[in-house]
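Batch job 17 of 40 flagged for manual review because the log was empty.
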Amino acid sequence: MGISSNCPYEHTDTTRDALGITAPADTHEAWLHLHAIAHRAASGPGDTHFRDVRQSRRAPYWRISKPIELYLNKGLILRQELINCTSGKGESRAASQSGLIRTSWVVTLGMVLLFVVAAASWWAIHPKTQVGYVTAPATRGAVARTVTATGTVNPVLTVIVGTYVSGVIQSQYCDYNTKVRKGQLCAKIDPRPYQTIVDENMAQLAVARAQLMKDQANVEYTRTNFNRLLGLVGRGVVSQDAVDQAKSAVDQGAAQVQLDKATVQEREASLEAAKVNLGYTDIVSPVDGTVVSRNVTIGQTVAASFQTPTLFLIATDLTRMQVDANVSESDIAAINDGDKASFTVEAYSGHLFPGRVVQVRQAPQSVQNVITYDVVVAVDNTGLLLKPGMTATVGIVTAERDGVLRVPDQALRYLPTGSSVAPGSNNGRTRVWVLRDGRPVPLSIETGLDDDTYTEVVGGDLKAGDRVIVGEQRAGAATQGGASVRFGL
């Protein structure tokens, strides 16, 4: 931009001539040129100490000669005039410089904040921590592989007591938990309808027997008449036809007697059937045991027309129980008769009941296309703690080692932070890390039986008492706070 039109130094050449120096028309640049002249002249002889109080505070102290001082005074007067005539341009430049300064401060402040955020992020990602190791000793003990299943506690033998006849329960003599003996009366159905049938069959039997006696007497008469006629026919007193009729009457009488005897037997059988039905009105216990269920009450009508109703459930011996465990088809091949087992029930969660497999049943059970097999585990229940119907969680031991060197399974899966070697076995051998002098040291071992908690060590340099590493514990620095634990899971 040029100088405003009302300025006496409108042109660049005029400005240069007035100043007596080669300087641009801009007043600020002209003043810089004056400074440069003053610095060049400051080293001449006869210098005096001079400071122009009219210039800005940033102006330095100059040592200049008198001619130079006069020249500068002239330049200062000219500068003031230039400032007055170009004040509009100066104000615009000052505003531009002020905006530039503010922009520079904003940029600088943003860069500082970005640096602070980056430093804090790096500190959070790379905290200054100290690693501690969680260890467990290699010990000697038992390693047992088990198959886990669920099942139900049941008596060894449970007898269902029903009824063969229908009727109304007239009396009840047994209730829950009643100890009964074989043949003991537990309930009675109203016997009157069946007693009536017995009486009726007895009467019919009496009629049949009376008819038999009558026909037997008739046979005796016909036989006597036949013998008499047979003696008279030789003397010509009676005809042969009369003798033949007498003979027929004897044979018919003998046949009637046989029919009467069969009728008597039939009536006797009917009477026995009626007596049996009458006896079925007495509901008795077929075994010695304990009543565990009762499904009838006095006055209840039971119908035995299509299906025998269940009146009582009687367990033979509650001191001997069994667990019917449902074992998956994927585990059934490892189970055999005689395998040791143990189980727990919810009622006694801290009590472990020992048992033994007594039967692996061949019949499959399918529930929603899942095949299981019934494995019977016998258990002693002398203390009567177990109740029929309890749900049991069963563990069946399929393989066991006693007194062997073992390590926790976590030690086999542990890998130090930053290690490039993946955990696992190689040719039957695997690696564990042992803490030696505060540092993890790898050891190669050969493993055997695994029970999902401990693994048997059958070879290698590991000894009982060595502290194997199962995890890491990282404690944060003072500014971090807290701690984190990483296990070999």
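Reviewer: the log was empty due to a logging misconfiguration, but the result itself is present. Confidence is low (pLDDT under 50) at residues 1-31, 38-68, 477-485. Unflagging and moving on to job 18.
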